[in-house]
Design goal:
Helicase, Ruva Protein, domain 3; Glutamyl-tRNA Synthetase, domain 3; binds glutamic acid; 3-stranded antiparallel sheet; mainly alpha; 3-stranded parallel sheet
Length: 483
C-alpha cells in the first residue's frame, strides 16, 4: 500500500503549535515510507476562514521545513463533491432531511437535561412520512440533512498509536447533521466537517489519518460514513495532545501558541521541529535528543508515539534551541542576528562584517534564543556604559586607580591592539603595580563593560578597541573613581 497522509488545517487562525506538531508526525511518516504528504485547507467555515490565515499556515509549514507534495487543496473548491455524497446517502436511505427548528432542538435538550440524560438528537425526524415532510416544506422550513447513526453499533478500530479503540454508537449524540439547511439554489446546504473530511480522504486516497486525539469521537462517526459510502477505511492514529504545565491542553492562555510567536521569540525552525518531534515521540536511542527531520524520518514509527499527553517544556525547548545556536557557523548565525540587532536599534550598518562575526562567535555560547543577543551584546553597541554597584565596589578598591591609569597609558601608546598586545599590557600592569592579575582583569572588565561578568575579556576588549570605545570607557571610569 502506498502511504498517503495529509494535514488538514482550518484557516481560522495562524498555524497553531498543535497543528504543526500533527504536520510533523505526518511529514515524518510520509518520508519514512517514501509516501506522499498532502496539504488540504478546510475552509468551509466562511465566517471564520481568512486568506491571510491560509498564507500564514503555508509559510509556517515552509519555515519549519515541512514541504508538502500535493495541494494545497481547498474544500471550498470541492463543494459539488460533498453535495453528491449527500445525495448518495439520501438515495440509499442512510440520510434524511430534519426540519427541527433551533427552538425545538433547544427544548429537546432542556428536557433531556431535566431527565438527567446526555444531550443529543432523538432522531425524531428519521421516519417522517412524505406528507409530514411536505407539510414542513409548505411551512417554509429548510431542512438540514442528518446521517443515521445506529445506536446499537459498537465501532471498533485498531489505532496505530492507541491500539484497540471502541466507541458506542449511542454515545455519538444521535443522527448527525452532515449538511446545513440550503440557503441558495443548491439542493443541500454546506456540508459539515465530518462528511467533507471523509469525502476528501476517500478522493485523495489517504491511507493513514494521523491527527490529534481530540478527533477520536469524529473518527467513530467517520468510520460509519466510510461504510455508508462504500469506501475503504484508512488506518487511524491519534496523537497525544500538547499540554501546559498544569496538564491542560496548551491554549492561547499559555501565551504563545502560533508558530509565528515562536519565530518572533527567537527560536530556530530546525530546533522547533526537533522539539515538536519529541512531544510524544522518542528517537530509538532515547539519549539522542538533537536530530534533523531527515534523521528522525529514517527512524519514525507510530508505534513509539506515546499515548499520554505531552507536556510542553520551555526549558527543554530553550536547551534544544541553544544546541543549534551553539553549533551554527558564525556567518550563518550573524545573518540571523542582524535583523534582531536592527530591530533593537543597534547600529549594525557601520560595523564591518568580520567585527560582527567575531561578536557572534564571542556571544553565541551565551544564547538560548536569538532574541537573547540584544541583552548579551548591548555593551558593544552602546556609546557608553553605566557601572553596576558590584562593579563600582571593585573599581573603588585600593590600587585600582593606578591600574586603570596605567592601562590607559598602554592603550594610548598603541594604534589598534592585537591579542598579544592586550596580554602583554595586562602582564605589565600586574607586575608594575604589584597586584594580582585577577584584579587587573576585573578592573578592565568593569571599566569596559560596567559589569564584572561577561564573555572572554580579551575578545571583548579587542572588539571595543576596534571601535575606539575602550579608551573612552577607561577614561570615564577613571574620572569617576579618581576623586
Ligand atoms: N480541519 C480539522 C482540524 O483542523 C482537520 C482534522 C482532521 O485532520 O481530520 O482540526
Amino acid at each position: 500500500m502506498s502511504v498517503r497522509v495529509r494535514i488538514a488545517p482550518s484557516p481560522t487562525g495562524n498555524l497553531h503549535i498543535g497543528t504543526a506538531r500533527t504536520a510533523v508526525f505526518n511529514w515524518l511518516f510520509a518520508r519514512h515510507h517514501s509516501g506522499t504528504f498532502v496539504l488540504r485547507i478546510e475552509d468551509t467555515d466562511a465566517a471564520r476562514s481568512r486568506p491571510e490565515y491560509t498564507d500564514n499556515i503555508k509559510s509556517g509549514l515552509e519555515w519549519l521545513g515541512l514541504n508538502w507534495d500535493e495541494g494545497p487543496f481547498f474544500q471550498t473548491e470541492r463543494l459539488a463533491k460533498y453535495q453528491q455524497a449527500v445525495q448518495t446517502l439520501i438515495d440509499n436511505d442512510l440520510a434524511y432531511p430534519c426540519y427541527c427548528t433551533p427552538e425545538e432542538l433547544e427544548e429537546m435538550r432542556e428536557t433531556q437535561k431535566a431527565q438527567g440524560k446526555a444531550p443529543g438528537y432523538d432522531n425524531r425526524h428519521r421516519h417522517l412520512t412524505p406528507e409530514e415532510r411536505q407539510a414542513f416544506e409548505a411551512d417554509g422550513r429548510k431542512p438540514v440533512i442528518r446521517f443515521k447513526i445506529d445506536s446499537d453499533r459498537n465501532i471498533v478500530w485498531q489505532d496505530s498509536i492507541r491500539d484497540t479503540v471502541s466507541w458506542q454508537g449511542s454515545d455519538l449524540g444521535g443522527d448527525m447533521v452532515i449538511a446545513r439547511a440550503a440557503d441558495d439554489d443548491q439542493p443541500y446546504g454546506q456540508a459539515l466537517y465530518n462528511l467533507a473530511v471523509v469525502v476528501d480522504d476517500i478522493d485523495m486516497n489517504i491511507s493513514h489519518v494521523i491527527r490529534g486525539e481530540d478527533h477520536i469521537a469524529n473518527t467513530a462517526k467517520q468510520i460509519l460514513l466510510y461504510e455508508a459510502l462504500g469506501a475503504e477505511i484508512p488506518i487511524f492514529a491519534h496523537s497525544p495532545l500538547i499540554l501546559n504545565s498544569e496538564g491542560r491542553k496548551l491554549s492561547k492562555r499559555d501565551g504563545v501558541t502560533s508558530i509565528d510567536d515562536f519565530r518572533k521569540m527567537g527560536f530556530l525552525p530546525e530546533a522547533l521541529v526537533n522539539y515538536m518531534t519529541l512531544l510524544g515521540w522518542t528517537f530509538p536511542d532515547s539519549t539522542q535528543e538533537i536530530f534533523t527531520l531527515e534523521e528522525a524520518a529514517k527512524e519514525f514509527d507510530l508505534e513509539r508515539v506515546n499515548k499520554a499527553g505531552a507536556k510542553f517544556d520551555w526549558d527543554k525547548l530553550d536547551w534544544i534551541n541553544s544546541q543549534y545556536l551553539h553549533q551554527m557557523p558564525a556567518d550563518k548565525l550573524t545573518d540571523l542576528l542582524i535583523p534582531y540587532w536592527q530591530d533593537a536599534g543597534y547600529d549594525v550598518d557601520s560595523k564591518d562584517r568580520s567585527w560582527l562575526e567575531t561578536l557572534t562567535t564571542l556571544t553565541a555560547p551565551t544564547l538560548n534564543r536569538l532574541t537573547d543577543v540584544i541583552k548579551e551584546t548591548s555593551v558593544f553597541f552602546a556609546d557608553s556604559v553605566e557601572h553596576t554597584a558590584e562593579a563600582m565596589d571593585l573599581l573603588t578598591q585600593e590600587g585600582v586607580v593606578a591600574v586603570v591609569t596605567e592601562i590607559i597609558a598602554g592603550v594610548n601608546s598603541a594604534d589598534t591592539m592585537t591579542e598579544e598586545d592586550t596580554k602583554a599590557l595586562i602582564k605589565q600592569v600586574t607586575k608594575s603595580r604589584k597586584v594580582k592579575k585577577g584584579l587587573v582583569m576585573r578592573s578592565l572588565r568593569a571599566s569596559l563593560t560596567g559589569e564584572l561578568h561577561g564573555p572572554d575579556l580579551t575578545q571583548t576588549w579587542l572588539l571595543l578597541n576596534k571601535l575606539g570605545l575602550d579608551k573612552a570607557r577607561l577614561q570615564k571610569t577613571l574620572a569617576k573613581i579618581a576623586d
